[in-house]
Specification:
single chain; about 425 residues; alpha/beta; Leucine-rich repeat, LRR (right-handed beta-alpha superhelix); 13 strands; about 40% helix; LRR_dom_sf; LRC34 protein
């Protein structure tokens, strides 16, 4: 049974009972939560992230977490817990694992960039074998390694509740990625997974081949992040072959790979036939003008499903960028485009300036803004992009739906 929303009072009492000094940061967040009039009806997410504060805060430790979960054990209205950028270790992971086994209301848990290792990963993944409430878990940046990732792969064979899992920057390896791909051939609940920046030492792209095979049979995954996989044109071809038969994937992240125009040719052919994909992130590859033209041709005549395209830092000159600008004049479905880091010429600046001034392209839907000097049009950078809030979240109001967000806004995936 849930206690009344008086989290701060219970926290003070728990600190006294456990002879643990109060963490003023936790105390302040709990006081703010107590003032929320809708806490008992709509629930609340406690934002205890250790970064993004104007005044430095004492970061949450393993001992702090022990007191906190003793308070939250009876607080059913706490449905989310953001503990990113703190100093939690495997001991804290053990505390959290016990909490997950006993708690049936927590839906969102963010542990990104703590100090959790392999043994902590084993405990948390093990707890999710039985947990039936958690929908979204972020482990980003914890160095759980290949073995730690294997525990999550095993969990995915059993858990049928988790919808979103973030294992980016976790130092997972080849065996882990293959095991996750195999698990997702049977898992029907997971809708989004981040596998960015694994540690791979092979040039054979075995992991991409296995992920492609998974996409042939998986009908639930809508968001897939494969950034920094050292993927080349061979891997892109395998993915495209699989996506001809996939009708669920909406968001494909291939950023920071080794994809050239030859690889984008396969993507262009895919876009002519695939009417499901809505977000395509090709940031930091090398598709150049030829690749940009492949995309523009597919989007101009054939594709009417893609809504977001990121081609940041792809060595594209005016020829390719102008082709995409012309495409946007006819393809009204394409609403977001990110182009910074390429080689702008006068024609590029004029074309994108016209798109923005006529209202065809909103300033919240791109990463450039026009300005004039001596009658000439130039483009300045805006801090927008698909990865804007991947590693941090603003404490104030978030962006408008669909604009500059790292996660799925266009096709919503449960977060809380």
């Amino acid at each position: 049974m849930s206690v009344l929303p008086d989290l701060h009072l219970h926290y003070v009492q728990a600190c006294q009972n456990l002879s643990q000094p109060e963490n003023p940061f936790i105390a302040r967040v709990l006081q703010e939560a107590d003032k929320n009039d809708e806490i008992s009806t709509k629930g609340v997410t406690l934002k205890l992230a250790g970064n993004n504060h104007l005044v430095p805060v004492p970061r949450v430790t393993d001992d702090d977490l022990g007191v906190l979960v003793s308070v939250l054990g009876q607080a059913a209205f706490v449905t989310g817990l953001d503990l990113a950028y703190n100093v939690l270790t495997d001991a804290g992971a053990k505390t959290m694992a016990t909490f997950l086994q006993e708690n049936s209301t927590l839906r969102y848990l963010n542990l990104m960039f703590n100090d959790i290792g392999t043994s902590g990963a084993e405990l948390i993944a093990g707890a999710l074998h039985r947990n039936e409430s958690l929908v979204h878990l972020r482990m980003t940046g914890n160095k759980i390694g290949n073995q730690g990732g294997m525990f999550f792969a095993s969990m995915l064979k059993i858990n049928s509740t988790l919808e979103k899992l973030d294992l980016g920057d976790c130092d997972v390896g080849l065996k882990c990625l293959i095991a996750i791909a195999i698990a997702l051939t049977q898992n029907k609940s997971l809708k989004a997974i981040n596998l960015n920046r694994p540690l791979l030492f092979s040039q054979q792209e075995e992991t991409t081949v296995h992920i492609a095979q998974m996409l042939r049979s998986n009908s639930s995954l809508v968001e897939l992040h494969l950034g920094k996989h050292e993927m080349k044109n061979f891997g892109v071809e395998r993915l495209c072959e699989a996506l001809y038969k996939n009708s669920s994937l909406r968001y494909l992240d291939l950023s920071c790979n080794n994809i050239t125009c030859d690889g984008v040719k396969f993507l262009g052919e895919l876009l002519k036939r695939n009417q499901t994909l809505e977000i395509l992130d090709l940031n930091a590859n090398r598709i150049e003008d030829v690749g940009a033209i492949y995309l523009s041709e597919a989007l101009l005549t054939w594709n009417r499903s893609l809504q977001v395209l990121s081609i940041v830092s792809n060595n594209i000159t005016g020829k390719g960028l102008v082709a995409l600008a012309h495409t946007m004049q006819f393809n009204m479905q394409l609403s977001h485009i990110y182009i910074w880091g390429n080689k702008f010429d006068t024609d590029t600046c004029v074309e994108f300036s016209e798109l923005i001034e006529t209202g065809r392209l909103g300033l919240g839907c791109t990463d450039v803004a026009p300005y004039k000097v001596d009658g000439k049009v130039f483009l300045a950078e805006l801090s927008h992009g698909l990865a804007k809030h991947r590693y941090w979240a603003p404490r104030c109001a978030a962006n408008a739906p669909g604009a500059a967000n790292a996660s799925l806004d266009i096709v919503a995936v449960s977060e809380y």
